[in-house]
Amino acid sequence: MNNRIYVLAGGPKGLIPDLDPIKSEVWVGVDHGVYRLLEAGITPAAAFGDFDSVSDEEWQLINSSKLNEMHTFKPEKDESDMELALGWAIEQKPSRLSIYGATGGRLDHFMANAMILASDPFLQYPGTIEIVDCQNIITVHPSGTYSIEKLQDKKYISYVPLSAEVKDLTLKGFKYPLENKKVCMGSSLCISNELEENTGTFSFSEGILMMVRSQD
């Protein structure tokens, strides 16, 4: 795995990072995100959606683009457009999968997008899967030991349990370190930490943990 795939969904435009520097990368469009990619001069490698969120004019542009991989679905389905798109993306075995346009707007959509990362096969995927907007980077991790580097533009690091318990959570190189701490779902103990050194580690023996790297 040595390639990177970007996914664009239909979240608020103001939260989506600048696409110009990465226009030549491999993109996947999700529902209204397909229109946004085409509008930006980007032809997605694949497109997924029921397209109930696009106008007739926007659909005309999408439909006339004759995309190589166009996957359309009825609104009544068991999997979300995002889940279907991510399933296709991980089949390509990228080393990093970056999801844009998945935050803001409807909270149920955001929560569903974030929780997808905690489900198989996404949780166990050996590459990095991240949700990115102008202010945050979100990743979800199974138990293990992880090394992270300081990011100047996103200095705050929060950990949110997605399982009933996260056991033996240890934070090293942080302003507020921890040693073998049990953290339960709903706890705010690990909100708004910072790295004191250029690198740090977090580890835990059991559970599922979301990491959110943010800026004010």
Automatic annotation (TrEMBL):
Gene3D superfamilies: Thiamin pyrophosphokinase, catalytic domain. Residues 144-210 form the Thiamin pyrophosphokinase thiamin-binding domain. InterPro entries: Thi_PPkinase (IPR006282), Thiamin_PyroPKinase_B1-bd (IPR007373), TPK (IPR053149), TPK_B1-bd_sf (IPR036371), TPK_catalytic (IPR007371), TPK_catalytic_sf (IPR036759). GO terms for molecular function: ATP binding; kinase activity; thiamine binding; thiamine diphosphokinase activity. It is an enzyme of class 2 (transferase). The keyword ATP-binding applies. CDD domains: TPK. It comes from the Bacteria. Keywords: ATP-binding, Kinase, Nucleotide-binding, Transferase. It holds the Pfam family TPK_catalytic. Its EC number is 2.7.6.2. One of its GO terms (biological process) is thiamine diphosphate biosynthetic process. NCBIfam families: thi_PPkinase (TIGR01378). This is Thiamine diphosphokinase. It comes from Falsibacillus pallidus. The lineage of its organism: Bacteria, Bacillati, Bacillota, Bacilli, Bacillales.
